[in-house]
């Protein structure tokens, strides 16, 4: 399967519309959204972004980020595209999602301790599934802030080390646009769409190929 992966739109409808223009006519199977659809706003802001993406006419799955309003998850559920704290199959590929972030110093809207994240992933995951997360795993290129400090989830990292999913898609740390690995697991942070970044990811025969893209 070939996915287009976006994260951290932060309510930038213009960038969402530009992405749709770019992708029109391209072959891919689904759009995956790794959270922060809005910038501390609710469903009205999220609807504008999602309505733009729907113009693609492709299947879409999403999770909320730590900066999305409390009613954004309700909207994703109503639209039937939420994969937070659940497993969804898409074209024979299992996708397990968890939104929000690990605990931050900023007390943002959706934050969970590592134990809660680890419990959800352990409950929903089946061997070979893809993980769609907002928070990246700790200790990778995908969770390093400008100072060089790693701020991702240790629970996610522990899960990956034990279960070795083929692919982990995440966001959250804007400056940590990267492709990395933990053992056999490929970790992708496409970078924030509000800055024009996204990724295309192909999963075929257990092998992963990634292209980091820019509008």
Mind explaining what this structure looks like?
With 215 residues, the chain is an alpha/beta fold. The protein has one domain (2-214): Metallo-dependent phosphatases (Purple Acid Phosphatase, chain A, domain 2), CATH 3.60.21. Helices cover 25% and strands 29% of the residues. It contains five helices and 13 strands. It has helices at 13-23, 43-54, 70-78, 114-124, 154-163, and strands at 2-6, 30-34, 60-63, 86-90, 93-98, 101-102, 111-112, 130-133, 167-169, 178-182, 185-189, 197-204, 207-214. A six-stranded mixed sheet has the order 4-5-8-9-11-10. The protein has a five-stranded mixed sheet with strand order 3-2-1-12-13, with no helix packed on it. α1 (13-23) links the parallel β1 and β2 (30-34). α1 packs parallel to α2 (43-54). The protein is globular. The model has no long low-confidence stretch (mean pLDDT 97).
**Number of DSSP helices?**
5
Count all strands and give the number: 13
Looking at CATH, the homologous superfamily is Metallo-dependent phosphatases
Structural category? alpha/beta
How many structural domains are formed by the residues? 1
Question: Largest beta sheet, briefly?
Answer: 6 strands, mixed
Shape: globular
Strand order of the largest sheet: 4-5-8-9-11-10
How large is the radius of gyration? Answer: 15 Å
- Arithmetic mean pLDDT: 97
CATH topology: Purple Acid Phosphatase, chain A, domain 2
């Amino acid at each position: 399967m070939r996915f287009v992966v976006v994260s951290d739109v932060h309510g930038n409808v213009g960038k969402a519309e530009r992405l749709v223009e770019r992708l029109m006519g391209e072959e891919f199977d689904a759009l995956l959204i790794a959270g922060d659809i809005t910038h501390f706003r609710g469903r009205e802001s999220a609807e504008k972004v999602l309505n733009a993406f729907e113009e693609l006419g492709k299947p879409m799955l999403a999770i909320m980020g730590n900066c999305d309003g409390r009613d954004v998850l309700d909207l994703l559920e109503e639209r039937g595209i939420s994969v937070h704290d659940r497993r969804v199959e898409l074209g024979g590929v299992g996708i397990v999602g968890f939104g929000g972030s690990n605990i931050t110093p900023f007390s943002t809207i959706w934050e969970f301790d590592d134990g809660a994240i680890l419990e959800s992933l352990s409950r929903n995951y089946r061997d070979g599934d893809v993980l769609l997360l907002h928070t990246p795993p700790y200790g990778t290129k995908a969770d390093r802030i400008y100072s060089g400090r790693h701020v991702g989830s240790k629970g996610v990292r522990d899960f990956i080390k034990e279960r070795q999913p083929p692919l982990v898609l995440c966001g959250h740390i804007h400056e940590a646009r990267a492709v990395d690995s933990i053992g056999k697991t490929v970790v992708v942070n496409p970078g924030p769409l509000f800055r024009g970044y996204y990724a295309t990811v192909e999963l075929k025969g257990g092998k992963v190929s990634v292209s980091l893209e820019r509008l």
